[in-house]
Input
Amino acid sequence: MKRIINIHPSDGVKLMLGILPFILALLAYMIASDMRLAENAGDKLLPSFSSIGEAIQRFAFEPSKRTGEILLWVDTASSLSRLAMGVGVSAVIGFFVGVACGVVPYVRANLSPFVRVLSMVPPIALLPILFIVFGLGEVSKVVLIVLGIAPFIARDVQQRVEELPHEQMIKAQTLGASTWQIIIRVVIPQVMPRLLNAVRLSLGPAWLFLIAAEAIASTDGLGYRIFLVRRYLDMETILPYVVWITLLAYLMDLGLKKTIRVAFPWFEGKRDDA
Amino acid sequence: MSIQIKNVWKEYGQRVILEKVSLKVEQGEFCTLVGASGCGKTTFLRMLLAEEQPTRGQILIDGEAMPAEPGPDRGVVFQRYSVFPHLTVLQNVMLGMEIEQSPFWGRLSGSAKKQAEAEARSMLESVGLTHVCNHYPDALSGGMQQRLAIAQALIKKPRILLLDEPFGALDPGIRADMHDLILDLWKQTGITIFMVTHDIKEAFHLGSRLLVFDKVRHDPQEPAAYGASITYDIPLETKGSRRMYPEVRKVVTVSEHKADRNSAMLLLQKEAA
Output
């Protein structure tokens, strides 16, 4: 008998094992929902799949009676544009600050402690300030995401730069490279895939901040909708919205992972390619 | 071109690494540096690279003070991490030329690029790597990566080549190939080489001059109080002809006892003088 740590599933078994928890979760939901509905047909807590399906039909495919727009798409578009803006701005800031801190000792001495403290500020606690300063519009939501994840990305990028072997920096100097040339030919190309990895890791927090901001002050967006219909115990809408958000987050993660693989073939198998 | 090291010391706080190191090395010498671990031979190499500065004394190249940071006149090959993982073999060798010719972008295009490519290819041919031009370094074996590192350093035509245990991680067979390669390149280019090695046979085989680093004074209560110096400086080649010192070599390379090795070295030095 082999040790358990040495027994590996075949590809087919692996796939089945991976799907199993999803099926079990769905089954558990179905059974619980049936039980509750059998007791009280008007139960709102665990709606049946058919009534969820009807709700999806209503908000994802039919124009809203009040506005004439299809709610899910409007919500998705506004949430994604806020998210993209927030994450994009954070990536740019994090990239520049991280590379500068990682390469130039003077910049590191100057900025690194500040970024470290900034990353400890709980962003949600700043939300009231953002609403006061930037109003209830788009800016405050984007700024919340930026405050939440840009310091993390900057710190991560700085750390990745510092992790590049010192030998490489010496070697580049013996090839006659200036600081600028070292940055654009040695540091940046090697940091790009690591930046994308940092962005991947920060997508979770980014969604969190987005939904929090939308829940508190917004007129559209996925987070807004969920918190709006909560008042009517509208689980038929909330559950598919949550699944949809999860799916979007998963696809973004997957997209970034594939991008890294295709755009940076040399990065394959490097330690931090999680 | 000659390198003159004048009474150089290196200390980290209370710890003395090197003391009273003085040396004169002429153009085209191949100095192999041996000594126990932690005796400062790598520190010595780092000072020649200007990665570190001596705390006392001076290093002069052609009578002038050495620049305070690494530069293109001194090439280097480390035991590991000498090549850039995000560049292909060809791009790794071209990098030095691209950096020189394109200050802002560090990249070439058109005919300048073609020319650099051709030059890089001929350099790769001399180290036997043409067949893997478009591979990334991670796909190469350890020996091939070191060949690449050597090619990358030599393309800048440095006057001095510094090797920090370059073959330490290689298999014995591959190592012998690398020895032939480095000796060929040394004879062709007339470059001055400093090489740190743990392998005293390798040091005898490659070098034209053997430098032994050791502590002259020793304080058992405070081992860091005294630094190492060059205790033996043995010419292995004069006017192109090798001196083999067969008997002494045997003692030096075989004997386990430091005292035996030291007396053999002493003999060598006397004989050489």
In short: The longest strand of chain B covers residues 15-26.
